[in-house]
Amino acid sequence: MYIACLDLEGVLVPEIWIAFAEASGIPELKRTTRDEPDYDKLMKWRIGILKEHGLGLKEIQDTIAKIDPLPGAKEFLDELRSFTQVIIISDTFSQFAGPLMKKLGMPTIFCNELEVAPDGEITGFKMRCEQSKLTTVKALQSIGYETVATGDSFNDLGMINASKDGFLFRTTEKIKADYPNLCAYETYDELMGAFKKAIL
Question: Which domains are assigned to the chain?
Fold first, then answer.
C-alpha cells in the first residue's frame, strides 16, 4: 500500500509568498523555506513585515485568487491519482490553500492554520503538529503505508529521507549539492517516471 506525499508550493503551484512580494512591492517577502530552514522564524518574520505595512489576510487572498497551478501540474496530479493515493503535505495555511485546491481538482491536503483578528490582521499561526511533513509520513507508515515523497525545500527533506523513495523537484543548486544522494528532477515527466518506478 503506497501513498504519494507531495509538497505544494514550488511543486504544484507557484510560491505564494513570492507572488505576494511581487504584488505588494515588498521584496523581503520573497524569502521562503528554500532560503530559511527554520519555518517558525520565517513565519514570525513575515507576520512582522505584514504588520509594519498594514497588510492582512484579504490582501494575500486577493493575490492567491490570481495564482494558477504550475503548467502541467494538474495533469501530473490527475495521472498520479489514477494509480495511487496522494496527499499534499504543506506548511502553507488552509486560508491560502483552499482556492488553489479547487484549481487542482480538490486533492487531499494537510496544512496549517493562520490566526486572524476580526479586522483581517494575521496575528499568528497554528502548526498542525511539530515537523508536520516528517511527522505525517511517519504516522502514515505506522498504519501500514509505504510513502514516496517529493518536494523542493529544506522543510521537505525530512519526509523525503524518511520515505521508501523520495525525490527533489525543481530545487536549488545548494540543496542538490548538500544532498547528492537524492535524485533531483526538473520536469513532471521525469517525476512521473520516478513515481511509477517506485510504486508500480
Answer: 2-12+70-113+128-199 (3.40.50.1000)
